[in-house]
Design a protein that fits this description.
Blueprint lengths: L10 E3 L3 E3 L1 H10 L11 H4 L15 H4 L17 E10 L7 E14 L4 E10 L6 E11 L24 E6 L4 H5 L12 H7 L8 H17 L6 E8 L8 E8 L3 E8 L2 E11 L10 H14 L1
Antiparallel strand pairs: 1-4, 2-4, 3-6, 3-8, 4-5, 5-6, 7-9, 8-11, 9-10, 10-11
Length: about 300
């Protein structure tokens, strides 16, 4: 089995992706908006509250940015070999409560890590009329047992755990039905709902979707650093470090920076989301059509996978 490195940069355009107001509302609820205070996130959780205009959580773009690439374009490995290593989502303009975008995807990088390989897939979500990029999603996948093909080393990032107390620490207990709710966004992988499937993989219980944990963290950071203003959100990057079980309590430590924030999420002493980076939109510059800017965090992350 091989990684098809000759396909790096080959672009595939998918069918238009549409969503409605209720889809954005469901996503917000599925990542815990309103769980601690049902009146706190009304712009994300309701469409008809007096004096409140519906807004869309920026990380909702991850759902729209599913790759339009056929899996056989990446390689001939098995789905069971894939681990979700990291994710970046960049929003160049705020999403409307309903709309349509066109996904355009490519394998943007592949790295030989010895025993394993790391593949990076970038998906741009384009406006159907202007073809401008509204959002970009970059997914890093660890392909177990597929290393050995040789590659240039990936660039390293400068992320370090700050040597000072966090500016914000937020805790939120996930609900026992968190994964059952999140799966209604479209990811019906039985690993997150079927105890028998979870046991086959080696888990005592079904685990929470990594993108759900990311969504909870993104909402938490946006609220703490930018007052839950979706128009301020630029990009969010995380590394998936350890699984979360529905019912676990997430503790998000946030350190503000000149451009946004660094953050890390733990369950007890275990890091579950690492190397978290949040950037405001005003610091993205002209990145709205640049895959390189959107992918910067995962290029660095792939070097560490």
């Amino acid at each position: 089995m091989t990684i098809h490195i000759s396909n790096i940069g080959k672009v595939s355009e998918g069918a238009p992706v549409s969503w409605e107001s209720k889809d954005a509302l469901l996503y917000a609820l599925s990542v815990g908006a309103g769980a601690l205070d049902q009146t706190a996130n009304l712009s994300f959780t309701t469409e008809n509250s007096r004096g409140v205009k519906q807004s869309v959580l920026p990380t909702f773009a991850v759902l729209l940015g599913n790759s339009s690439l056929p899996m056989d374009q990446l390689g001939d490995f098995k789905l069971s070999q894939i681990l979700h290593g990291g994710q970046t989502v960049t929003v160049h303009r705020s999403l409307e409560p309903s709309g349509t975008l066109i996904p355009v995807s490519s394998m943007s990088a592949a790295y030989d890590k010895g025993k394993n390989a790391v593949i990076e897939v970038t998906t741009h979500l384009l406006d159907p009329e202007t073809r401008e990029t509204a959002a970009t999603s970059v997914t890093s996948m660890i392909i177990r047992g597929e290393g050995g093909f040789g590659s240039e080393p990936a660039p390293r990032d400068g992320w370090e755990l700050p040597g000072r107390p966090a500016d914000f620490i937020r805790t939120q207990k996930t609900s026992l039905d968190q994964a059952l709710l999140y799966r209604l966004n479209g990811d019906r992988n039985p690993l997150h709902s079927d105890p028998a499937m979870a046991a086959l993989i080696g888990f005592e219980k079904p685990i929470l979707h990594g993108l759900c944990t990311m969504g909870i963290a993104g909402r938490t950071v946006l609220e703490a650093v930018s007052g839950s203003d979706a128009d301020v959100f630029g990009s969010l990057h995380v590394r998936f470090a350890s699984p979360v079980i529905p019912g676990d309590e997430l503790t998000t430590s946030i350190w503000t920076t000149e451009s946004g924030a660094l953050f890390q999420v733990r369950v007890g002493d275990t890091v579950v989301l690492d190397r978290g980076t949040y950037l405001r939109r005003d610091v993205l510059g002209t990145a709205e059509v640049s895959a390189d800017n959107a992918a910067e965090g995962l290029h660095a992350e792939a070097a560490r996978a």
